[in-house]
Write a structure and sequence with these properties.
Helix 3 runs antiparallel to helix 4. The protein is globular. Helices cover about 55% and strands about 5% of the residues. With about 80 residues, it is mainly alpha-helical. The chain has one domain.
Length: about 80
């Protein structure tokens, strides 16, 4: 019998202050909030999983670049977030 995974939930990751500050400084908070909740949570979890500060910074910069560009999520095409030109 197959396991029912329909009610599984991901851990919720709180936004660190340095991520919030970067989003606000680059005026990308609304772009972040426009993303689905799972993407917001995945970005924060992915950044927080890094052990080295340099890796956290690299991941933060990737998230910021993807939000600025639109249409990309974790280096994959995401048409739903594409920015209208």
């Amino acid at each position: 019998m197959a396991k029912d995974v329909s009610k599984l939930e991901r851990d919720r990751h709180p936004m660190p202050s340095f991520v919030k500050a970067a989003l606000e400084e680059q005026s990308l908070m609304q772009d972040y909030l426009n993303r689905p909740a799972y993407q917001q949570n995945d970005y924060i979890g992915w950044i927080n999983l890094a052990k080295r500060d340099a890796t956290k910074e690299k991941r933060l910069n990737q998230m910021l670049a993807e939000l600025k560009q639109g249409g990309v999520y974790m280096n994959m095409p995401h048409p739903a977030s594409a920015k209208k030109q």
